[in-house]
């Protein structure tokens, strides 16, 4: 299967505004890794292989606290369970892909790549789906690894007043807001956010999964009761 370069570039172009949020997120990941005793090579390798910002930060924190390996891996799995929902949603568009390309796409699947791709697929039936997704996902990977490397070089020298700890929430907010198109989705987002904060003390970041389930149920309830009619 060939790659249409125009759609490859379109994927890079459409996701590029989100690169601005990835850079400080990656810097934080690099700094955190160095502060927890990782070498620059380990930190960059970690980012290149795992390629999952939120779970990486949680894993780095747990490794620094000498948590059992099972807890570290379990936490990463729980945080990334949302990828199952993304996969189920986007899989119908990938049916014609060769197995090797499906493997590549599964590795490149992130919140940002999913968000821009699923929006594009719904609007433009002529898009080369593979090229567009690879363009979006691969460009995010490059920015993520490069910004992590920059974070390891800067170490703990980044001024705290830069507020880089807010990078991750801002990235997710940028993805969330455009999806709140009706009462059901808005209810789902608000309820999920509130539950995530209220259940913050639940161990191993399980508050995220609890919030996701409760938010989805709230949205379904509003939709079933005719909240958008």
UniProtKB/TrEMBL annotation:
Subcellular location as annotated: Cell membrane
An example of a Pfam family matching this protein is AzlC
The answer to whether the entry has keyword Transmembrane is yes
Keyword Transport listed? The answer is yes
Topology relative to the lipid bilayer, per the entry, is: Multi-pass membrane protein
UniProtKB keywords: Cell membrane, Membrane, Transmembrane, Transmembrane helix, Transport
Span-the-membrane segments of this chain are 15-34, 65-85, 129-150, 162-180, 192-222
Identify the stretch annotated as signal peptide in this record.
none
Q: What Gene Ontology cellular component terms go with this record? A: plasma membrane
Q: Which family does it belong to?
A: Belongs to the AzlC family.
Tell me what this protein is called. Answer: AzlC family ABC transporter permease
Q: Which organism is it from?
A: Haloferax namakaokahaiae
């Amino acid at each position: 299967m060939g790659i249409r370069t125009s759609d490859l570039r379109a994927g890079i172009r459409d996701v590029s505004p989100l690169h601005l949020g990835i850079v400080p997120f990656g810097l934080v990941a690099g700094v955190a890794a160095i502060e927890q005793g990782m070498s620059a090579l380990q930190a960059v390798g970690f980012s290149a292989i795992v390629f999952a910002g939120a779970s990486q930060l949680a894993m780095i924190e747990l490794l620094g606290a000498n948590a059992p390996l099972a807890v570290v891996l379990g936490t990463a799995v729980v945080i990334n369970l949302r990828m199952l929902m993304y996969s189920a949603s986007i899989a119908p568009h990938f049916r014609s892909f060769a197995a090797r390309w499906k493997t590549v796409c599964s590795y490149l699947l992130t919140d940002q790549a999913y968000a821009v791709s699923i929006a594009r697929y719904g609007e433009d039936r002529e898009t080369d789906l593979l090229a567009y997704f690879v363009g979006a996902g691969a460009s995010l990977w490059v920015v993520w690894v490069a910004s992590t490397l920059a974070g390891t070089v800067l170490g703990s020298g980044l001024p705290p007043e830069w507020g880089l700890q807010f990078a991750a929430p801002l990235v997710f907010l940028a993805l969330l807001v455009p999806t709140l198109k009706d009462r059901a989705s808005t209810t789902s987002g608000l309820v999920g956010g509130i539950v995530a904060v209220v259940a913050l003390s639940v161990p191993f970041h399980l508050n995220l999964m609890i919030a996701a389930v409760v938010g989805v149920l709230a949205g379904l309830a509003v939709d079933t009761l005719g909240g958008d009619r």
